[in-house]
Write the structure tokens for this entry.
Amino acid sequence: MSPSTATRLTRRSLGRIAAATAVAAPVAGALAACSGEDDPNKITFLSWDNAEVMGPVIEQFEKDNPDYHVEVQYAAPVAGYIQKLQTQLGSNSATDVFIITAENKKQLMDGAFVQDQSGEPWASNLNETAVETYSRDGKLYGSAISSWAGGMVVNRDLVPGEFPADWDGFLDLCKQLKADGTVPYLEAVVGMTDTFCALLGQQNVVHGGTMDQQIWDGDLTFEEAWTPAVKAWYRLFEEGILDTSAAGLTGDVVLPEFQQGRLAVMTTGSWGISGISNGAPDLDFRFEAVPGSAGEPYWSGAVSPGLAINVKAKNPDAAKVFIEWMSTEPGVSFYQQANQFISTVKDYEPDLPAQLGDLVTAVQDGEYYLPAVSWIDNNDALSTEANALTQQLATGDIEPVDVGKAMDAKLASLR
Amino acid sequence: MGTATAPPRPVIRQAAPQPTRLERLRRRGIEPYLFTLPVIVVFVVLFAVPLVYSFYYSLTDFNGYSTDVNFVGFENYTTIWQDTSMLAALGFTLLFTVATTVAITVLAIPLALILNQKFFGRNLVRSVFFFPSVVSVAILGLVWGFILAPLGSGVINSVIGWFGAQPVAWLAEPTLAKFSVVAVAVWSGTGWHAVLYLAYLQAIPSEFYEAASIDGASRWQRFRHLTLPLLTPAITISQLLLLTGGLKVYDLPYTLTGGGPGFATRTLTQSIIENGIAQGEVGKASALSVVFFLAVGLIIVAQLALSRRLEARFS
């Protein structure tokens, strides 16, 4: 007997409803599925380094601490990382351990998102500059185990003698090299360069190391503090050592010129050493501080990002085990050997390449300066402005004195 | 007397009562709603809710972290017009959108006409022109960074150097940097849009052209009065995609120039991202997003209205 029309319709309807439900169910399921079990030995960590760098470190931690395991998430620095962390904190889903850095330290401290680590056993193992960078009111909110510095890298075959210690001597050297047919110096002016920052660092020393605090307190202006350094840097353009094309260069374009021996001096950070050596294993080069325009030679640089504990961490004790391992000899030595950074912790002396020269001592002594880290607040808004102004100066759109004026105006607009 | 046949009674067709809305819904069943539910959920969760939140945040001083959010009225909307970097971003974004839309349209239609001809190696040539749109725009930006490098060792500067010319600061001089970004975008997008036009060209019956030829129409007349009108729907779609893509462009200028030199090639999306995320000015970035959303909406509505008029005129 054939089924009645009504029965057929009912079957068809049922079929449709089943199909529609099958389509809709996964969506509902996906929206509903947000739960997980509690495991007191699980450490969740939002890594700043990628899986290639951090993966082996985590493996080693779990080998050294078999009771614990780390669940890692990765986000690429800087904007991507900040965004992900911001979203996680906003939705109460942030990991137990995450990174505190110049770009987010004010917001993390202001919002009380991070735990005080000042009384923890590993805190005394950290370098003073690192502690100062991530401290406020005597409380330590991040454990940084390394720092970096940037300066000039010199091809010793093209510049065999003593590297000048003063700015005039450096400009003379560049002119001499240029007259001999060698490209003397290049820097990628994608923003504030290492040289630019180091010259500002020399001004910071002139102002007793509190230049930015004085600016924020209203005792000094950017125009007063910066103009001598900006004028010194601009002499590179006025005296024909650099031209406007520097504003269109990137580090990737400059590096091969140096590796292939066509360039006498370039700038980079300490992390750049492996890139130079890998591409030109026989090249004789050495890092040098930026020659002194106002005082002694100086470096650009900053304390590296630190590890912070979420104030709402599910397993704060496990998080502390992880940070203690990462901030003391077992973790630092493994991490350092794998990644060749300049560790600054007290219980471990890294074995670093000789080409870094005085840079290592400068890093360990905290003799470096980076405006974006030193500024009291609005670091990123001011960085964006300063980077653009540096490029506009390089392209000749503004004069050196305009840089400080524009920075004063920007700071005023942000207050 | 014959029997008079009674005239048939007029059949009064009673108009069926109009079903109520509830009845119509009941007859339709719930299946259509269940089928569209995933799309509705996705739309609400990923579009409507963020949009409402953006508008809300644009009226506050929210910094992305703090829960202490204060209502500031329309202050953020006035601030964005005082920020030189945002104004520069607005200017370049509009320039990029208009320039790429015009240039790609002007180049893609003739290219599609050529690719529609029969010639040896046609499929290879089509693939070659389509290829730039396959590669990630961010990778294209990095590769073109080397090609346009301002040093003598840059690819283009090496070529012009063979003829004795001095290296050109393609990405270092503001006007040249703008031109370079637009040129790379046109290079990467023309092939894709040519393929779109090609698909429409292939749908035009050849009889139309045969009839036009018999009527003595020249090549130009056939293009002007036959091909172009029949391509109008394709032009509408292509320009819609170019306008929306251009207005929200981010990856190519960012990877090629980082928005520089200065703020010369900064885009609105870069401003929104940097203000909202890196600088913790979510309120300001949200205000910019709302303005941007409304501007894009208006431009798209205007473009569609204009295109429909053109389609109606040509059809």
Summary: Chain B touches chain A through 48 residues (CB under 8 Å).
